[in-house]
Amino acid sequence: MAQPKRQRTRRTGRHEIYVTLRQMVLTLQLPPGAALSENELAASLGVSRTPVRESLILLAQEGLVQVFPQIGSFVSRVDPAQVSDAQFLREAVELAALDDLPPELDDAVLQELRDNLERQQREGLGIEEFFELDEAFHQGLMRLSGHANAWTTVAAAKGHLDRARRLGLYENVSPAVFADQHREIFDAVVGGDVTLARTAMRTHLRAVFSDIERIRAHSPELFATDPSAVPVRRNVVVWE
Amino acid sequence: MAQPKRQRTRRTGRHEIYVTLRQMVLTLQLPPGAALSENELAASLGVSRTPVRESLILLAQEGLVQVFPQIGSFVSRVDPAQVSDAQFLREAVELAALDDLPPELDDAVLQELRDNLERQQREGLGIEEFFELDEAFHQGLMRLSGHANAWTTVAAAKGHLDRARRLGLYENVSPAVFADQHREIFDAVVGGDVTLARTAMRTHLRAVFSDIERIRAHSPELFATDPSAVPVRRNVVVWE
DNA sequence: CGACAAGTGCTTGCATACAAGCACTGGCCG
DNA sequence: CGGCCAGTGCTTGTATGCAAGCACTTGTCG
């Protein structure tokens, strides 16, 4: 299908850089606590400081990086308080969406969700692949209730939660449990049992959440300890 | 009390500009659809384009302004879809917070809310004053449930809703009704009747929301009509 | 040996110059 | 008279230079 290339909003280099950096932070390729440098990033990406800097400012507003003037920029450590906030937020929104399902569910979305669930149960699924399916599943449920846009707001605010979830997946490689919970939710939705759907959803979301404390004990250096952050400039020493 | 001026994060000029512009957009001093110009704003604020531009980028990410490369920057028109999304979001979060109230409520916050309610009922209250009290009241309820931070996320996402609410206040100057609803919610919370509190809260939030269609009929030029925006460069003609 | 102070190299914040592109204007030509 | 087309002035995007400041190193002096 010949997509009209004429975007109403032109693609800028900044947007591409922003998306790239954001993905690297969320997938932990840029681990929590890592020192960033506008100059280094600009050089490695082959652009000037300007678009890199503007991207960092956006990521800072999302809470994914912290910028300390005259000191440096750092990937935020996972903040348990922010994880908890995002958990509360997503639970409130997803449960409210279940209450708001229309009588007639969109067939196209339902079929998409069925395909998604089937793929989740395939063997040998990579962590990133499962994560993607997981996100698509929850987003699909929000679309069923007609609140897809509200979900994008939640998605933007749950960066800390997502990083913690990824850490959980890398620790405990058993997405099968989550896949089963997804199916349980879906069946309740299709069956029209809102109460059961709510219960299943709440159980599912809290199961994901409960892993975090265990992970924190295992990898404390990835988590923030004190609200008064500890910015540390990395050593100036250079291998040569 | 001698506040330690030594902020951990130094205040930058950009932050000040960002707060200023954001306030001007939310209070409709910069009306929906208004054309902005990085150069003009920079000149009028006495700084260079850089901090202004970075502020506009942040506001664009919040959806309060739209930036069209090589065309111009504009204050977003109020988007009914985004208003509806924010309404759904805040209702979900505030109701969930009521479900999550602790057994023992914080006395300091309770007293603050009582003072707030009393001030709401004073005669001759300006619209902006009432709006501020309104915001503080809802934020106070969120603090009671221990989810103040989740509220900041909602607050950041509800810019379109707030502008619509302000339009409603300017149209229909009767904040007394809202003040009474606030007291009803508060009394139910203090009385420990979560069910009643939820009902009162839902009624209150939807009352605010229901005004919007009327306002839209009255001032359609402030609302967005088509998702495919209509960026129009303002005339180059200059009075002289 | 210990402590203090200047030096060095990095950091981000801000200012500014240039590049690419859109929209309107006004003149030219059929 | 109508339509095309270069010209002009604005827009935002990007690159770059400089300023202010922090942290570490190193030399100096007691």
Secondary structural class of chain A: mainly alpha
Q: Using CB atoms under 8 Å apart, which protein chain pair has the greatest interface?
A: A-B, 32 and 32 residues
CATH architecture of the largest domain in chain A: Up-down Bundle
Proportion of β residues of chain A?
Answer: under 5%
Number of discrete helical segments of chain A: 10
Q: Would you list the SSEs of chain A in sequence order as H and E?
A: HEHHEEHHHHHHH
Helix proportion range of chain A: 55-70%
What characteristic shape of chain A results from the CA principal axes?
Answer: globular
Number of strands of chain A: 3
Mean pLDDT across every amino acid position of chain A: 87
User: Low-confidence spans of chain A: pLDDT under 50, at least 5 residues?
Assistant: 1-7, 235-240
CATH top level label of the largest domain in chain A: Mainly Alpha
Could you name the CATH topology of the largest domain in chain A?
Four Helix Bundle (Hemerythrin (Met), subunit A)
Mind telling me the CATH superfamily name of the largest domain in chain A?
GntR ligand-binding domain-like
Radius of gyration of chain A from CA coordinates: 20 Å
How is the main sheet of chain A built?
3 strands, antiparallel
